[in-house]
Design brief:
single chain, 5-stranded antiparallel β-sheet, 3 helices, 9% helix, binds zinc ion
């Protein structure tokens, strides 16, 4: 996580990324499709009811919902029916010869631009990669339209099929802080001050500060500094582990109303015997911020390491 202060508008922004690792259960038809790509064969499926062939092979017909019939090998040649260019290259819809639906895939334009209506032919990765990308893409081709009917393939041994594909989806993004969060983080970073904004109508102090009061729909006009002490409004003891967690369970996740604030701040409570958390803590328990060492602060709410109960 990096804070940066340059960009199109020079606005302070958070540059970070959402990471979503997951496994995809392929199902029978797609696992056969991926396995056969390793042999340079593109596999589709044929619905006898609709008399249509689609690629990649599917377990059920998307049109009639019935079981797909034969798993068939189709021709590696076809025609481009649509194309989109991105900074990372071109993708397009390809209607393979003898197939009744388009396949979305990479269009290889390294040898020149490809247009809608052009003939293309499959290119394969040097080694199978275990996903549809074993089929590297489609490059321009001088092939004639094939009239060979898709032919049924032999049953693939179950042990040759990959049942799952490991994926990781990464979504990098920039989140502009805007004037309210920008000021909050500046004050936190420079002197450990916690700011809210006051609604001129209901007089509530909103922490973190926001541009509009969500109760009155009135623009807030004034920054107000609140204390780093407050009271618990609600809390949960977290025992479950999950991806992306920044603390090791058990820990206490709490809603805290800081002194001088009208809204709840989400933070952690620590400095207690976690096994006795529900005895030690209660709604209304007074707490205070425990700040990280100055050298570890970077101007975010994480500069507060946690809140601890104030002995009464
Ligand atoms: Zn069908
Ligand atoms: Zn208000």
């Amino acid at each position: 996580m990096t804070r940066i202060t340059t960009g199109i508008d020079q606005a302070p922004a958070l540059e970070t990324s959402l990471e979503m690792p997951y496994t995809l259960t392929t199902g029978k038809a797609v696992s056969v499709f991926i396995e056969q790509l390793g042999h340079g064969v593109i596999v589709g499926s044929h619905c006898d009811n609709c008399d249509r062939t689609v690629v990649p092979a599917q377990d059920y017909c998307a049109r009639c919902g019935g079981d797909q019939g034969a798993t068939v090998a189709v021709e590696p040649t076809g025609v481009v029916t649509a194309i989109t260019r991105t900074a990372d290259g071109a993708v397009g819809l390809i209607r393979l010869d003898g197939v009744d639906a388009d396949l979305l895939h990479v269009i290889d334009e390294s040898a020149g631009e490809v247009a809608v209506g052009d003939r293309v032919e499959a290119t394969f990765a040097p080694e199978p990669v275990g996903t549809i990308l074993t089929l590297a893409g489609f490059a321009p081709s001088t092939s004639a339209v094939s009239t060979t009917a898709p032919k049924e393939i032999d049953e693939v041994a179950d042990e040759d099929l990959a049942k799952q594909i490991i994926y990781s989806l990464s979504l990098p993004y920039r989140h502009a802080y805007g004037p309210n969060y920008g000021r909050l983080f500046d004050e936190l970073g420079s002197r450990g001050g916690i700011l809210g904004s006051r609604c001129p109508h209901c007089q509530n102090v909103l922490v973190p500060p926001r541009a509009y009061c969500e109760i009155c729909y009135v623009k807030t006009e004034q920054f107000v500094e609140v204390k780093d002490t407050g009271r618990l409004q609600a809390f949960s003891v977290i025992h479950m582990e999950f991806i992306g967690q920044t603390r090791k369970p058990p820990y206490v996740y709490a809603e805290i109303v800081l002194d001088g604030a009208s809204t709840r701040l989400i933070h952690n409570v620590a400095g207690i015997d976690m096994a006795r958390a529900t005895e030690v803590l209660d709604i209304g328990t007074p707490v205070r911020a425990v700040w990280k060492a100055e050298s570890e602060r970077n101007g975010t709410l994480d500069d507060i390491d946690y809140f601890e109960p104030i002995p009464e």
